[in-house]
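Handoff note, outgoing to incoming analyst
You'll be picking up this chain. Sequence as last confirmed:
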Amino acid sequence: MALIVPRVAAGAVGSGETGFMGEVRVFEVRRPNSDFTPLDGLRFRLETDGRGVRVSQWLATLARRIPEAYLAQLGTFGPFPLEPAGASGAVRRRGGRGIQARLTRDADSEAPEHVSVSLTLLRGDEPAHEFHASDLGIRVGETVFVSGREFEIPASVYLSWFREPPDREARGRLYERLRNQTIFLVLGVTIREGAGQPAAPRRLRAPDDPRLHDLGPSLVGPSTGRVTLRASVAEDGALDDVQVVETTFPEVMPRVLGIIRDWTFPDASGQAVLLSFPVTAPPRRPADPDRR
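Most recent structure output, in case you need it:
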């Protein structure tokens, strides 16, 4: 499996003198077929620039707005410099498919309030699907969440761009489990002060932790995937400010984030780091008849 690593899209790197950075988080909302009324024209803001916010806190905030739904964070794009006019963003690729997140800023505004966001699914270099929200009305230091009917995604498209079944048989099983689900994407957009291209995080080797390969049955049955995380390392070597850069197995993320709390990297204290590792949810074990 090819690792998807974030990079700034061609033509998106500027002089770094704009003074603003943008970041786009992609969330999944899923539940059995329903009208999903809470998602109609979803748009709300939080007074945070995203730094220090845990994945569980983002999901808890969404859960209050979208109750009785399965939620997961699929990935993070950025931070990247926000150009004074035109589009800025990042793209990730796996094989012949890619995902591009872009923020487009109004050329007539010195402040970044008039920003539009788009998430484009690419087949090669050509757009296959696009999700778009205009004029977010976002202020520096805020995060705005957007979704709606136009952010619904078919199960087949979701599988092709956001999941990576190990083989055709596994893909078929996964499709059968998801095709009667309604799936939406939610985009969380943050604008914060800052300038210049941020330094690339240091790549670290994740511990060979057996718990990552015995995560228990997932919502879609036995499966495998890969997780890429960005974090800062505290003085004691523990991971802090963990962000999901990309996951092809979102069901197991709560358990994964619980496991990594025990990891320490004392040699990387004070640094931004990137970790990528495989995860596995095995088949459900048969009940032990002798166990009471």
